[in-house]
Design a protein that fits this description.
The chain is mostly helical. It has helices at about 5-10, 15-20, 40-55, 60-70, 75-105, 115, 130-135, 140-150, 155-165; strands at about 30, 35-40. Strand 1 (about 30) and strand 2 form a beta hairpin. It starts with a helix and ends with a helix.
Length: about 170
């Protein structure tokens, strides 16, 4: 499949695909007969993975590092991305309900408590905590949470940076 076809299929621009090639994220093959960039089925699978990472907020540099890791497990990553998107969907649905009720309240058709006004704005949820609980148990996760909570803001930022690099 040539770059134009891959761009149309994926919703990206040809320029974006060329950029992915330039930075080594998604290398195309050159068709020697016509000089066009071409993408195999495996390339399109990789492009799909890249786009899922992009939708989850990862930078291209981060995506490149993740995909080049020899321990990268595509199926496991898809499961994590699926969980993330389901949680995001639930959060957005809660916010839409809150927004709709707020509009009705503004029009005098409904009323909301102070607590109801902020439903859907949960910034405390860690989407990986449930998986950690399954893998290592509640006690281990609680100890970890307590340890993190006891750290200063600077220490937490430093830990976050290290964990981001490891991830």
């Amino acid at each position: 499949m040539n770059a134009k076809q891959a761009a149309e299929l994926s919703g990206l621009s040809v320029r974006a695909l060329h950029h992915f090639d330039e930075i080594g994220l998604l290398r195309s093959q050159c068709n020697v007969k016509n000089g066009y960039r071409e993408y195999s089925e495996a390339d399109l699978d990789k492009l799909q993975q890249i786009l899922f990472f992009k939708q989850c907020g990862f930078s291209l540099d981060r995506i490149k590092k993740l995909l080049s890791n020899p321990r990268f497990d595509r199926a496991k990553v898809f499961e994590l991305q699926k969980k993330h998107l389901i949680l995001e969907k639930e959060r957005i649905e809660a916010m839409l309900i809150s927004l709709e009720r707020t509009l009705k309240t503004m029009e005098g058709e409904d009323s909301m408590s102070q607590i109801e006004k902020f439903k859907g704005f949960d910034f405390s949820y860690n989407p990986y905590e449930e998986e950690a609980r399954q893998l290592w148990g509640d006690e281990t996760v609680e100890k970890s949470n307590d340890s993190i909570a006891s750290k200063s803001e600077r220490e937490r930022k430093d830990m976050e940076k290290i964990l981001d690099e490891l991830f």
